[in-house]
Amino acid sequence: QLQLQESGPGLVKPSETLSLTCTVSGGSISSSSYYWGWIRQPPGKGLEWIGSIYYSGSTYYNPSLKSRVTISVDTSKNQFSLKLSSVTAADTAVYYCARDYSNYDLWGRGTLVTVSS
Amino acid sequence: DIQMTQSPSSLSASVGDRVTITCRASQSISSYLNWYQQKPGKAPKLLIYAASSLQSGVPSRFSGSGSGTDFTLTISSLQPEDFATYYCQQSYSTPQITFGPGTKVDIK
Fold first, then answer.
1. Which residue in A35, A47, A63 is closest to B87 by CB distance?
2. Is residue A107 within 8 Å of A53, Cβ to Cβ?
3. B103 contact partners, CB below 8 Å, separation of at least 6
4. How far does the CA of residue A110 sit from the closest CA of chain B (Å)?
5. How many interchain CB pairs under 8 A, A with B?
6. Which SS3 state, helix, strand or coil, does residue B46 take?
7. Nearest CA to CA, how far is B74 from chain A (Å)?
8. Exposure string (b/e) for A10-35, b if CB count within 10 Å is 16 or more?
9. Do A46 and B49 count as a contact with CB atoms less than 8 A apart?
10. Is residue A16 within 8 Å of A116, Cβ to Cβ?
């Protein structure tokens, strides 16, 4: 069955770029039925959609983060990635990748990224 | 963009209680509304999609209703494993979606 797994550094310095990868296993990321998304959750707070990508490379971003976010896909590795630039402490959160079928029916376990010097 | 609100922000209930959570959209979203349950330290879990369709494997005590701007999640008889935070999410403007702020259900 399809599974998603986030990976990347757990600690990022302020002003640097946060980089995470989501590896999809048990199925193809190139399915025409789905987008693939990133969602984050600051400690003790709610869920915030960051952005989504289609296997073709079409991207959609949260307007509040758009200037700092890049999402890309590597179909040969069955992965999609998130880059968030110029991070501050406000970007400290658990970052989730998930399958987007108009609803998020499959999620990774999440990875905590702390922004601190 | 479409804003989502939820009420109440938290509630206390007992096992066996009927629990109702409300979600409101800032504009009509037809039936493009999903509900999630999240337990501490875990990823959210899809409960209800398209306002009233039960996701596979979700107990039938969960139900959803509504259309347009007003939606409801109902737990008919609260079980110990249902104590969690619940989020609504609009998919009308998919893939540019928004979540509600969440409703925490805890033990009275």
1. A47
2. no
3. B6, B7, B8, B9, B10, B11, B21, B85, B86, B87
4. 7
5. 57
6. strand
7. 19
8. eebeeeeebbbbbbbeeeebeeeebb
9. no
10. no
Ramachandran area for residue A8 (φ above 0: left; ψ -120 to 50: alpha; else beta): left
Quote the minimal CA–CA distance from B4 to chain A in Å: 12
Task: Tell me the C-alpha distance between A52 and A39, whole Å.
Answer: 9
The structure tokens 């409960």 sit at: B47
Count Cβ atoms below 10 Å from residue B65 Cβ, excluding itself. 15
pLDDT tens track of chain A, all 117 residues? 999 999 999 999 999 999 999 999 999 999 778 999 999 999 999 999 999 999 999 999 999 999 999 999 999 999 999 999 999 999 999 999 999 988 999 999 999 999 999
What residues in B contact A49, CB-CB < 8 Å? 96-99
- Is B36 within 8 Å of B45 (Cβ atoms)? yes
Give the whole-angstrom CA distance, residue B57 versus residue A61.
Answer: 31
